[in-house]
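sry for the spam today, last one i promise. struct tokens for design, 212 residues
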């Protein structure tokens, strides 16, 4: 039996919706703080990787805001048109993320810019990875129970945030230990490709929802 086959009461659905909103509010709060902190740490260490990561957090705040808008009770909250609009907006967020990461990755590979060591940045990125992977897992579970495709898509962005923080963390570590300055921009390009794929899938899903 799948989650779609389970008949939930209105109260159960309302409870799940509140849990989903709390997860999104938590994500927004974390990413707002993350933007200020990582940009600040990046400025101190002259690390474009950390500054770029903070900029990406702003894009993720937008994506979470879209899902909050979709989940909040209101007129047309569950209509195909509203769901399609949410998917298009999430697709735009993924597209912006892909462009930002690709630009930063190519720029750093071409210029050969070597980031400075940032122990505090590495520690924060490790903590961020744990938080983002945990949030992504929780969002996917609730999205399945709610049968919410926009929430499931945004959970993928949260997961990519965890992947990106892990990649930047190891990039900074490899640069500090082995001098592998190219590890971070290469990882950024790979995550950028994944974000571009998610943008395409969300745009296609929006077209499908619009036809319903």
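last one done:
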């Amino acid at each position: 039996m799948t989650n779609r086959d389970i008949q939930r009461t209105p109260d159960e659905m309302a409870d799940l919706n509140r849990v989903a909103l709390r997860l999104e509010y938590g994500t927004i709060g974390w990413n707002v703080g993350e933007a200020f902190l990582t940009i600040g740490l990046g400025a101190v260490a002259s690390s474009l990787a950390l500054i770029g990561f903070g900029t990406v957090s702003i894009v993720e705040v937008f994506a979470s805001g879209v899902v909050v808008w979709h989940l909040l009770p209101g007129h047309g909250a569950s209509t195909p048109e509203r769901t399609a609009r949410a998917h298009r907006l999430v697709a735009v967020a993924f597209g912006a993320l892909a462009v930002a990461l690709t630009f930063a990755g190519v720029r750093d590979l071409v210029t050969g810019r070597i980031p400075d060591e940032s122990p505090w940045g590495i520690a924060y990125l490790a903590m961020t990875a744990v938080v983002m992977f945990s949030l992504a897992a929780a969002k996917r579970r609730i999205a399945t129970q709610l049968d919410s495709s926009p929430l499931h898509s945004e959970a993928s962005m949260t997961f990519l945030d965890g992947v990106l923080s892990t990649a930047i963390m190891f990039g900074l570590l490899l640069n500090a230990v082995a001098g592998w300055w190219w590890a971070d921009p290469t990882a950024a390009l790979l995550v950028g490709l994944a974000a571009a794929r998610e943008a395409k899938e969300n745009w296609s899903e929006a077209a499908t929802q619009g036809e319903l």
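The domain at 19-211 is CATH 1.20.1510.10 (Alpha-lytic protease prodomain-like). ok im logging off now
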